[in-house]
Amino acid sequence: MEPEQQTNRDEGIQVLRRAAAALDEIAAEPGQLRLVDLGERLGLAKSTARRLLVGLVEVGLASSDSSGRFSLGERLLGFGSAAGPHISALFRPTIERVSRVTEGETVDLSILRGQRMWFVDQIESSYRLRAVSAVGVRFPLEVTANGKAALAALDDAEVDSIIARFSPEVADGLRAEVAEIRHTGIAFDRGEHTAGISAAAIARRAVGDNVVAISVPAPTDRFLEKEQRIVEALRTAADSPAWNR
């Protein structure tokens, strides 16, 4: 390949990556982000962010309301609407098994979208005192078991891009946790997101190159009692054929 062709190819890939990152952010917080927000999250100059967003709107991949807040465009909505239900259907038997093995604890299925984990399915705990999150909500990455597991499933460049928005102290802590999760295969939230609730999670790339996570949250006292059982259930779930379909 000629040097000029290689340069054009690299520039084209960079534009596609930026567009994908922008759409992930918009999908995570539809109707909430303005141009300045997206520019900051993507680390782009205002002029570069404007050109990118104008292009996405022109081809129907994004839309902007009267106050300048972005949502996914109609062209994308038709493709993306089936992602959650499709992944939920693939993984339903797996999360049901995790629920049985953990003796009725809540099991959540979520997908990485931008800098949030999007909950697409759940087996609700049978216990009176339980941890429950509504399907459709989005949780942050840095303080949740499923979020940290998803970070560990990304490559180093993707992780650096996401955690660059955090303070150096938080970013360093996350890098250390990501390294540990890659070694053990299990991520933990020990009361970081919600006081009194702990969780463990796994995550891998699955259908459509989506990063999918399975997590088990529970009241901390009961989580500590069952921690080994929960971890074993998640390790078994990591071998489910659902990841490869």
From TrEMBL:
Residues 75-245 form the IclR-ED domain. One of its GO terms (biological process) is negative regulation of DNA-templated transcription. SUPFAM superfamilies: GAF domain-like (SSF55781), Winged helix' DNA-binding domain (SSF46785). InterPro entries: GAF-like_dom_sf, HTH_MetabolicPath_Reg, Tscrpt_reg_IclR_C, Tscrpt_reg_IclR_N, WH-like_DNA-bd_sf, WH_DNA-bd_sf. GO terms for molecular function: DNA binding; DNA-binding transcription factor activity. Pfam families: HTH_IclR, IclR_C. Residues 13-74 form the HTH iclR-type domain. Transmembrane segments: none annotated. Keywords: DNA-binding, Transcription, Transcription regulation. PANTHER family: HELIX-TURN-HELIX TRANSCRIPTIONAL REGULATOR, ICLR FAMILY, HTH-TYPE TRANSCRIPTIONAL REGULATOR RV1719. This is DNA-binding transcriptional regulator, IclR family. The lineage of its organism: Bacteria, Bacillati, Actinomycetota, Actinomycetes, Mycobacteriales.
